[in-house]
Amino acid sequence: MLSKNQLKLIKSLEQKKQRKKQGLFIVQGEKNVAELLRSDFVIEQVFATSTYINKNNTLLSTHQLVPLCTEVSSDELKKMGTLLSNNSVLVVAKCKTATLPTIASQELILVLDQVGDPGNLGTIIRVADWYGVKNIVCSPDCADFYNPKVIAASMGSFARINVSHTPLVEYLAIQEKPIFGAYLEGSNLHQCALPKSAFIVMGSESHGISDELEHLISDKITIPNFGAAESLNVAMATGIILDNFKR
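Predicted structure:
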């Protein structure tokens, strides 16, 4: 049975300050939890309906999670989490200490500047996973990786991508690989020679890439437009750019 203290802890993890203080985050829904179980994240607690527990008893036993399980109702799950549609399982897991990546010889690293919308960050993580990108480096004012909305929007890809937050000027200033930046006035992406190893900087939809980063960008690129739309969603633009790099 769910206790008041358990509910209080879980609800507190919706706040970045509490996630940082407790070193914990929540993962909701059968799909995301399945991906979590395949990862090396450490699981602290599992809250699930009897239907989920019975259906996944072998899986829970394999991962030695049965002692950590608390059976709850669908209504209790809705109170605990942030998803209206979650009627199966919610897990509390430990946050990892992210390490800044060193770029490999044939690697693309995504760099996100001021991408504050959790849904956008989660979708970018999912897109990155699709294209085989393993590392995303975010500015400190990006959405928090462990925000429940980020985890949900990633559709399980959060378990495979290393996401770190750091001041970008210091990080990019020491890099030797080319640094591509998405600009409205950049060179036509379709006509650029794109290397197999590079940093790709994406800015916020409202402000673009910060002025303080501009001098570090070696190649300004743009997605050519054929219609009248003013701009693209940053997650969509990331997918288009990664597709061109990988093609």
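Summary: The chain has two domains: 4-94, 108-246.
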